[in-house]
Predict the 3D structure of the following.
Amino acid sequence: MRIIILLFAFCVTEFVFAQDYPWQQRVEYVMSLDLDTETHQMQGHQQLIYHNQSPDTISRVYYHLYFNAFQPNSMMDVRSRNIPDPDGRVADRILHLKPEEQGYIRVNKFLQDGKELETVTEGTILVADLDTPILPGQHMTFEMEYTGQVPIMVRRAGRDNNEGIAYSMAQWYPKVCAYDQDGWHPNPYVAREFYGEFGDFDIKITLDSDYIVAASGNLNNAEEIGYGYTDKKVRHRKKDKLTWHFTAENVHDFVWAADPDYTHTKLLTKDSVELHFFYQENEKTRESWTKLPGVMKEAFALMTDKLGPYPYATYAFIQGGDHGMEYGTATLVNGERSIGGLAGTSIHELSHAWFQGTLSTNESLYHWMDEGFTEWLETSVQNELIGKDVLPGRYSTNPYVPIYDGYRKVLEMGIEEPMNTHADHFLSNTAYSMSAYTKGAIFLNQLQYIVGKELFDVALRKYADTWKFRHPRDKDVIRIFEKVSGMELDWYYEYFVNSTKVIEYEVSELSVAGDTATIVLNRLGTMPMPIDLEVTYSDGSVSNHTIPLRLMRGVKQGEDGIVYQQEADWPWTNPSYTLTLTTAEKSVSSVKIDPSLRLADYDLTNNFKELTEN
């Protein structure tokens, strides 16, 4: 019967998945950049074709100028010096940057369809009022000439990082801000995450010929460049400059890095995606980076099985940056570490290739939908690779236990804030990290607990396929899980995402009279959840029960071979619940709440009770 019910649920959802997608803007960048590696200054030209696919008339545009954050007394600097738990990579370092170590982007000329406009730069945001508004359905061409200076590495982008990588060029160009149903998003850069429009990038980068460039997308002039992009041997005169021509389609960002000492290797996945690896080969990197391609090929296959095909032709793992950060079809990662540490970070960043690269939520508002879901996937994939002996480590039947333990520690600290707090406005970095990474991962794992593993797997893949290239919002993921499961799940979103209410249950009573066992459960916390209950009998056998919330209007059937006995639902208004079991030749000996440990229950010590003989 369970199999029939599950198949029926799958079939029904296929017929009801009609989806009204919101509109979104589209961009086409054509950029050229000349970098002076002596002064670390750059001259840039950008042409942007901006497609207004909204129902609104656009009379003003905003651009991000991220490098301006790396100046004393910038908002990033002041924020870092006043938050109670500053990121050690930033701390007060920006305040002490010398002029030649600071970063900046200065737009010298800005044109709309050939007519020069005035601009105002406010920190990391450029503002321009348009001469001619862009009507719905129209497109407009903007051009700009700009100069810039690459800062010393502080956070994510810059030159001369702590491993000696010359250039980590993230957020290096004037990037038009996102415009969606909520209007413009000109968030000042204070070291949080990013949000951008999908579009096409045509990039030409000119710098000294002894530098090897790693980047998003595809290299169009590989035969001219060489350096491992082609098997052809290409000689370059040392003092000449080379122009590297990259293109990337349907991405929302473009990153590149450059170093004269990069080793470049590549391999194909089983789906013919070309994986590129760039690193400085030395005693600290040789062993781990030699092993990394094989590990990531295995990781790529697991992620594809869970989330569907990767939609691009390439992905690059690039030694650079300040730890690990995801970009369009590429990541920057620190590289001088063991294969376990390097692979862990690389798996996390590759997970972003789906949740951030192809789905691209607004990370300022819905950071947990990217970082948390990525944390969940990384944890699963890394554990599976350990189980296959692809990675060193100890396999766990529940690799999420440390994540739940971290959540409980933050609850003890009393600094939790709602998950939908804007990323820039958390009161502490710890509260942000817990909401974005820890609680975001638990959000998914508890959805699995609520709907059951089989339906969860279907829903997660359906979410990735339905919303790719469409900037899903918070309720969009819940609606997918509702459609697949047939359950009502808005209560879960409201409690877990929009509040800081705590889950806390106890087994308060277990008694047996004759062949009748009475179990009393209490909800001590402020957030209701369905309850899985494992009952153990005197002969060692067990039965599994599930108590749905009435709010769910449904119940999971079973998972991983477990068939749940479905009990009467529990109204959220009721603080206690009594379950009566009738047994024959055996007696109940103990009861345990949530044997799978997927419920984010605050205190686990009261989740188990043994029968006490009178």
Observations:
- Residues 2-20+400-496 form one domain.
- Residues 305 and 461 are 9 Å apart (CA to CA).
- The chain is about 25% helix and 30% strand.
